[in-house]
Amino acid sequence: MLMKIKNANTMASIFGKYGKLGIQLGLFVSIVVFFALMNPVFLTADNALSVARQSTYLAIMSLGQMCVLIVGGFDLSVGAVAALVSIISTMVMLEISDPAVAIIVGILVGLTVGTIVGLLNGFIVATFNVSPFIATLGMMGIINGITLMISSGAPVYGFTEKFSAIFGYGTFLGLPSPVIVSVLIALVMYVLYNMTPLGRHMWAIGGNINAAVLSGLSNMKYKLIAYGISGFMAALTGIMLSARVSSGEPTLGHTMMMTSLVACVIGGVAVGGGAGNVPGALMGVILIGILGNGMNLMNLGAYGQEVVMGVFLLMAIIFDRYMHPGR
Q1: pTM for the whole structure
Q2: 172: which strand partners?
Q3: In the chain, what are the domain boundaries?
Q4: pLDDT exceeds cutoff 90 at 187
Q5: CB-CB contact of 272 with 209 (8 Å)
Q6: Measuring CA to CA, which residue among 281, 269, 248 is closest to residue 63?
Q7: Exposure pattern of 257-283 as b/e (b: 16+ CB <10 Å)?
Q8: Measuring CA to CA, which residue among 134, 89, 73, 68 is closest to residue 252?
Q9: Bridge partners (DSSP) listed for residue 175
Q10: Which of 32, 70, 171, 284 has its CA 20 to 30 A from that of 122?
């Protein structure tokens, strides 16, 4: 028994000290070298820009997922929220004739809906002490049903083209507008977690909830904030993706729930709370973006890609076990 404890502590020490950097750097180098050998297009500037554009949507959703993970939660409903907001926002835009007003109102309504769903998740988890997995799984089913009911399972077309022109394909200073939005979001999140008491308190809630509550922190308050941010980010992802595909889609973003978890855990965000940071989560997003792009260049089908993502999730959980053995 003592030997097992000693070995576990040794592994924890090694992974705790070098794990995040070593895993991320090792995966990055391995993936880049492999795909560069498989397809010379992989290392071109145009393909790098494509990876950046594709990764922006996952980055936004993953930063929201990170907030929930840090406070010891879990959010399986983010993909469903993105789809719901995609449908609602575009439906609202269809009802308003003025393009500028339509875009503004559609975005505000979508962000409000997503935030409300997130707050409801946080309220259920914090008030009734329900497992975050079960609570958000149930919410995912509810949201999926509502989305299919109001859309009849069909995409929404015909809203103002300026929406896609600005938020889907627009550029500023040579950079795609989705990339700019994701960078701004990342900067705000970095400031929140590294320069404000709110960020430190959320880390404290996830690290040791009993000690945090005894110190005067409100479990309800910070769970609501974390899940509210997650809902907001999922909604923003749905809006940006709608602009990208020029339609409201009832299945938009469903696969991003798993990839956002993979990105966060690979990036060092602890499953169980109390550890994680914005740069790490973004590195995880970049790794997933490169992996997906490389598989596309190799013409690997959607089913095969889902298998690979599942393997990466299992690997990430195993690494998380050694980096955060107490979780």
Answers
A1: 0.87
A2: 175
A3: 20-322
A4: yes
A5: no
A6: 281
A7: bbbbbbbbbbbbbbbbbbbbbbebbbb
A8: 89
A9: 172
A10: 284
CB 189 within 8 A of CB 63: yes
**Token output for 112:** 């409000």
Kindly report the CATH number that applies to the domain delimited by 20-322. Answer: 1.10.3470
Whether residue 319 has pLDDT greater than 80: no
Mean pLDDT along residues 63-92? 94
Scanning the structure block, which residue is given the tokens 């910070």? 222
- CA nearest to 186, candidates 234, 122, 223, 233: 233
* % of the chain beyond a pLDDT of 70: 89
Distant-in-sequence, close-in-space partners of 172: CB < 8 Å, separation ≥ 6: 180
CA–CA gap between residue 133 and residue 33 (Å, rounded): 36
Report pLDDT digits (tens) over 100-119.
999 999 999 999 999 999 99
- The type of residue at 168 is G
> Where on the phi/psi map is residue 273: left (φ > 0), alpha (ψ -120 to 50), or beta?
left
Query: Tokens at residue 313, please?
Result: 């999730």
H-helix or E-strand containing 172?
strand 171-172
d(CA 160, CA 65): 31
- Tokens 């997933």, located at residue: 288
